[in-house]
Write a structure and sequence with these properties.
402 residues, mainly alpha, Cytochrome p450, three-stranded mixed β-sheet, three-stranded antiparallel β-sheet, binds protoporphyrin IX containing FE
Length: 402
């Protein structure tokens, strides 16, 4: 029986009290994950999370695990053709894979996308203005990242509903019994990517996928499975996360009207405001797991080889030892060394892109809808059930036209 239940309903509805207890009573704790029928360690204090994310004794590469451990934690073998990507690799593979796309994500290259992001945001909001209320997640938050990925990677924007469905399922793995549905999704997504890559091979364009195909044919630095996994990762990592950052940001501002007023008075505060959303309500609440390959002593606790260790970013962000008054939403919080994009080797490649999209999207919503408010009682809003992502199921808003 677990002392704490990070998988229970209470965690979805109101996770902070449980996380505070974990930080106080058992900051590095071994639990039993009922969905995987396997042990899982949770690290919840800020200082420990920082150390864990920097500690290269923990591997992300499931291929280094014994067969027994691999089959315990990775139940859907169909994933094998989609997960040969940098997030699940250690150096030197990690270094090679990341270097292939790093140039496309530098802050400078990303700033070149700003006019496109601004134009896409205005275009998505035009029809919104003519309605009385909308689900902002549906109307903007999830459409914008797809429009941007379409521009960057070259995937057709018309397929956005399918991406949304696929990434939702993949990011929030089903509980026991739903594994068949997950298998079907993985196979469908894989077939889709195969067709998309075949099309780009025949008809290259000025996009990242075509550049990677070119790199692949000119050298042996990227296998076909790695190429497919790379595109998969960019879609999976860049879509639901950014959508939730926009959604969580609007939610947090509407929940804290005084902060929203400060932002309206001083629009330049949008940048620190986005950092505070990433801290207060991070779209990625847990890091992906890592495994020690031998028994390791970590901050005074022995973690046995091949047991999954997960860092709770949400908990670290509410650790009073790092952030004074951590449960207060303060758009000018300084310093604000949040871990919303992770840390160390696997620090989010898309951080500049996510910041750009959220800054433009939330900044534009605040400017264009001065009467913005919840269209339903905010206490009735539901948070998604998920291991990694932290976001709302819907965000109905109106702007006082009624
Ligand atoms: C608000 C939006 C986003 C958040 C909160 C976020 C968060 C994160 C986090 C926490 C990690 C580290 C995971 C770990 O250590 O287990 C990560 C890694 C990564 N993210 Fe993001 N991400 C966002 C948007 C994006 C976008 C837009 C892209 C690209 C299109 C992207 C691509 C990646 C990649 C490729 C990695 C793996 C990097 C590596 O392994 O070296 N992310 N992200």
């Amino acid at each position: 029986m677990n002392r704490f239940d990070p998988w229970g309903e209470q965690m979805r509805v109101d996770p902070l009290p449980t996380l505070a207890r974990m930080r106080a009573e058992a900051p590095i704790v071994r639990l039993f994950n009922p969905h995987q029928s396997a042990p899982e360690w949770r690290v919840t204090r800020y200082a420990d999370v920082v150390e864990l994310l920097r500690d290269n004794r923990f591997s992300k590469d499931k291929r280094k695990l014994s067969d027994a451990a691999r089959s315990r934690y990775f139940r859907v073998s169909e994933f094998d053709r989609l997960d040969k990507h940098m997030l699940y690799a250690d150096p030197p593979e990690h270094t090679r894979l990341r270097a292939l796309v790093a140039k496309a994500f530098t802050p400078r290259r990303i700033m070149e996308l700003r006019p496109y992001v601004a134009e896409a945001t205005e275009r998505l909001l035009d029809p919104v203005e003519r309605q009385e209320s909308v689900d902002l997640l549906d109307a903007l938050a999830f459409r914008l990242p797809i429009a941007v990925l379409a521009q960057l990677i070259g995937v057709p924007v018309e397929d956005q509903e399918r991406f949304r469905e696929w990434t939702r399922i993949l990011i929030a793995p089903p509980s026991e019994g739903d594994f068949d549905a997950l298998r079907r999704m993985v196979i469908e997504f894989q077939q889709y990517l195969e067709e998309f890559l075949a099309l780009r091979r025949r008809r290259p364009r000025d996009d990242l996928t075509s550049a990677l195909i070119k790199a692949q044919t000119q050298s042996d630095r990227l296998s076909s499975v790695e190429l497919m996994s790379m595109i998969f990762l960019l879609i999976a990592a860049g879509f639901e996360t950014t959508g939730n950052l926009i959604g969580n940001g609007v939610w947090a501002l509407l929940r804290h009207p005084a902060e929203l007023r400060r932002l309206r008075t001083t629009p330049a505060l949008i940048e620190p405001a986005i950092e505070e959303v990433l801290r207060y309500c991070p779209p990625v609440k847990n890091s992906t797991g890592a495994f020690p390959l031998t028994d390791v002593e970590f901050r005074g606790t022995v973690i046995p080889a091949e047991e999954l260790v997960v860092a709770s970013l949400l908990s670290a962000h509410h650790d009073e030892a790092q952030f004074p008054e951590p449960d207060r939403f303060d758009i000018t919080r300084t310093p604000n060394r949040h871990l919303g994009f992770g840390l160390g080797l696997h620090f989010c490649l898309g951080a500049s892109l996510a910041r750009l999209e959220a800054t433009v999207a939330i900044g534009t919503v605040v400017r264009r809808f001065p009467g913005l408010q919840f269209a339903v009682d905010p206490d009735t809003l539901r948070w998604k059930d998920g291991v990694f992502v932290h976001g709302l199921e819907q965000l109905p808003v109106t702007w006082g036209v009624r």
